[in-house]
Amino acid sequence: MGHSGNHADTLVETMKLYALLLMLPLCASAAVKTMTLRQALDIALSQNPDLLLARLDQEKARSQVTIVREPFVPKVYAGSGAAWTTGFPNSIEGSAPSIVQARTVMALFNRPQSYLVAQANEGVRGAAIQAALREQEVVYRVASLFLDAEQAGRSLEAAQRQAESLVRVRELTGQRVAEGRELAIESRKVNLAVLRANQHVDALSLDLINAETALALALGMNPDDRVRAAVEERAAVDVPVSEEESIERALENSNELKTLESNMQSKTLEIRSYRAVAQYSLFAKYNYQDYFAKFQRNNAQLGASIEIPLLVGRAPSAQASQAEAEVAKLRIEVARTRARITSDLRRCYQDLKRAESSREVARADLDLAREELTIDLAQMDEGRLPLAKVEEARATENEKWLAYYDAQHAAEVARLNVLRQTGTLEAALR
């Protein structure tokens, strides 16, 4: 039986070694980069995919202005209109036949097109607001993921220390059980605590990998890359004390409200363009009389074609009504958004107070555990307390560290939420 047990242990160790060898290529292909929060933000602002897409939309909006302004830009054409004709003299495109011809075409005054140009310019402003809104979202996401990775790393270290302490407790308890100074059930209790601690370490290891991978993706890196939060002394971000002033600032800086207002302005210009559409033509009789009365080799014209609206049909009016309905919907959306921003910010302040209170309690609990450990160490030095009890106290201290890290992380995230609502998060972090 003993030989069979040794063979099974050897087989298990061989399988573990084989699994480790299979994982080596995966570990080698994944790059782990250590960064500070500011470094992560700088990289995100330069290569985050969502932010890059928003900036491309800005370029597209600028190009749209150039497109709609095209009728007002003079265009020069040169060529020949020579053609053999029989009957009424005209060229292929309908004008009089000519040997050499040149013409310049541009719109001097076109009210509908002018409104479309103004609408395109408003689209540029709206795209810039959208890019700023996306930038705020990216900054908040990167900062939150960085704090998640930082908290996961600290918690993993504390959990590992706790597991090591419990392993020492298990060894010492096993010795006392073997000597008959402890019941066998105490050994099983400690062994269960070790298993739970190891399970917690494994879970936190996976949390750390997921947090670092999510942070790398937010920075625009490869899916196999990971970004580790650098250990640094970082001052807590300042949050405005006055809740009412924060609400006013949030409403003033809200890019979401600015986007809705820009959309309203764009729709208003669209309505004006629909109401300025028409066409009318009036021909000058003297042009035809002079031309057919005598022949003139060189011919030139300088003037403008004027169109005055008389009958425009019902479609522009219906399109204007649709745009007016959109404007009315946007006004309702603006009012609802302002109310939501106010409510969200008040709730963020409540969450911040709750998180800071929980952090204070967790800190007090941790300080008490550390003080108790100090007392236990002193008693062990005096021979009044066994080492197993000291290791239990050390494991308890590490458990309090875990609770404190969780509470601290919640408080930092709550601060980020307040600054995000007020539109001052990026300035506070950088």
Keywords:
Outer membrane efflux proteins (OEP), two-stranded parallel ribbon, 11 helices
Can you describe this structure?
The chain has 430 residues and is mainly α. The chain has a single domain, classed as Outer membrane efflux proteins (OEP). Helices cover 72% and strands 4% of the residues. It has a two-stranded parallel sheet with strand order 1-4. A two-stranded antiparallel sheet has the order 2-3. Helix 4 packs antiparallel against helix 5. The two termini are 66 Å apart. The N terminus is likely disordered.
Return the structural class. Answer: mainly alpha
What is the number of helices? 11
The gyration radius over C-alpha positions equals: 38 Å
* CATH class designation: Mainly Alpha
**CATH-level-4 superfamily name:** Outer membrane efflux proteins (OEP)
Architecture, according to CATH?
Answer: Up-down Bundle
State the helical fraction: over 70%
Summary, kept brief:
With 430 residues, the protein is mainly alpha-helical. Helices cover 72% and strands 4% of the residues. It contains eleven helices and four strands.
Question: How would the blueprint of this fold be written?
Answer:
Blueprint: H1 2-29, E1 32-35, H2 37-47, H3 49-68, E2 75-79, E3 101-105, H4 111-178, H5 184-218, E4 226-229, H6 243-253, H7 255-274, H8 285-293, H9 315-381, H10 387-422, H11 425-429
Parallel strand pairs: 1-4
Antiparallel strand pairs: 2-3
Helix pairs in contact: 2-4, 3-4, 4-5, 4-7, 4-10, 6-9, 7-9, 9-10
